[in-house]
Amino acid sequence: MEVLHTALDVTDMESQLDFYTELLGLEVTQEAEMDGQRMVWVGGDEGGELQFLEADEHADPAGIDHLAVATDDLDAAIEEATAEWGSDLVVEPQEIPGEARLAFVSDPEGYSVELIQHLD
After folding, report:
1. Burial class (CB in 10 A: 0-12, 13-18, 19+), 1
2. Core-most of 46, 47, 94, 102, by most CB within 10 Å?
3. HEC letters along the chain
4. For 82-118, how does the pLDDT look when each residue is reduced to its tens digit (9 = 90+)?
5. Interatomic CA distance for residues 22 and 82, integer angstroms
6. Assigned CATH topology for domain 71-120
7. φ and ψ at residue 100, rounded to 5 degrees
8. What CATH topology corresponds to 1-64?
């Protein structure tokens, strides 16, 4: 497995991006919108990314939304997490066509962990 990114809730996406790109020299690596939520990833040359989620008025503006980890077998990882670790399946498996399958489970402390299986 490989740690991919940490997702942070933000209330001002543009200021957040300016800080990380202009001050720290990171680059925007991808952008997406899902279920009406804007998502932007930034990263450097060595791998690993931060994902910013534009939070609504009910979200904690400084909260950690989730951690993302790559897995070779999404279904096996979900099965082991729920059966052996007592994890909850937070978000059912879904597919980003041609790119990846993903799902969210809880860790022992209750944090959401996004499991991502890249499709080849």
Report:
1. exposed
2. 102
3. CEEEEEEEEECCHHHHHHHHHHHCCCEEEEEEEECCEEEEEEECCCCCEEEEEECCCCCCCCCEEEEEEECCCHHHHHHHHHHHCCCCEEEEEEEECCCEEEEEEECCCCCEEEEEEECC
4. 998 999 999 999 999 999 999 999 888 788 999 999 9
5. 42
6. 2,3-Dihydroxybiphenyl 1,2-Dioxygenase; domain 1 (3.10.180)
7. -160, 160
8. 2,3-Dihydroxybiphenyl 1,2-Dioxygenase; domain 1 (3.10.180)
